[in-house]
Design a protein that fits this description.
alpha/beta, 5 helices, 9 strands, globular
Amino acid sequence: MAIEQVKTYLKRWNKEMDIQEFEQSSATVLEAASALGVKPERIAKTLSFRKGENAVLLVAAGDGKVDNKKFRAVFGEKPRMLTAEEVLDKTGHAVGGVCPFGLKEDLDVYLDQSLKRFSSVFPACGSSNSAIELTNEELYLLGNAKGWVDVCKGWELE
């Protein structure tokens, strides 16, 4: 089970006990926000894209939407999301529980600037009913991020 992989992975930082598991689904941004009692934008959603023959993961704020032009400028390709089957095959996590922790394959992980406005965010933990609260620094470290990118729109403060 993917959540067990994530618990094992997070154990090296003594964070496995911080994982929250819910009776209800937290598979979507709105469901996760409801389960946690936080605003949807504080949910750190993990999106999976094709990058050449491989894949790249993008962790973004719940209200961020990928901007095609920005994505192409950063990654050199238009954003093409993986199918649910490909996501499971590459990450070991099913859609709704995808996170940058305990991955099946060594994938490049990037964090979007949309997360930086929060002191902490809530990524999933490998299942459709789990989450963990992390600071951006913890998310960067535990998610083995390659860097910060600016590829989302719709979240910017007016």
